[in-house]
Amino acid sequence: MIRACLTALALTSTSALAQSCPPAPDHSERLAQLIAEAQSAPTEMDGRLASNKMWDLWADAPDETAQEILDSGLRKRRAFDLLGARADFDRLIDYCPDYAEGYNQRAFVNFIRQDYEIALQDLDRALNRSPNHVAALAGKALTLIGLKRQDEAQTVLRQALSLNPWLAERQFLTEPDGQEL
């Protein structure tokens, strides 16, 4: 009985949270500028600086509540509390279902857990919400590699590298004939 009441309360509060999350900040113009900076960066250091600034945009949650949940999940993931991090990212997605970074971070936790199929689903959700999310594209390429889907991985990796040629994941790029670069 108590468990049923708690479940009902959790479902009620989850739907209430989803209704109160504002839209994520629109950083599309700034992201486009940073992608252009990365593409034209003369050195890897310059390219990585642009990449770091992209992370600042993606990690800018829709409101204070979402930011607290995201930050909590990130802290737990860094401490390898993967179950706790996943629970936080689940809460974030329940609260802000249109915020791409919630899906991207949950995908990363699942990638670390080697649950590649679930990670891939979340990466696709993140990319549906933020098509130029370079980190989600790179994560999708790595996830496809984990699933032994090399041809798809190469296609996605090339897409990510077209946006940011300085990604560390470029080491996984192969020539069309399968030879390492």
UniProtKB/TrEMBL annotation:
Could you tell me which SUPFAM superfamilies the record lists for this protein?
TPR-like
Q: Which Gene3D superfamilies does this UniProt record tie to the protein?
A: Tetratricopeptide repeat domain (1.25.40.10)
Q: Give the TPR repeat ranges.
A: 100-133
Q: Transmembrane region positions?
A: none
Matching Pfam families, A to Z?
A: TPR_19
Keywords, comma-separated and alphabetical: Repeat, Signal, TPR repeat
* UniProt KW Zinc-finger keyword: no
Q: What is this protein called?
A: Tetratricopeptide repeat-containing protein
Q: What is the organism of origin for this protein?
A: Primorskyibacter flagellatus
Q: Where is the signal peptide?
A: 1-18
Name the source's superkingdom: Bacteria
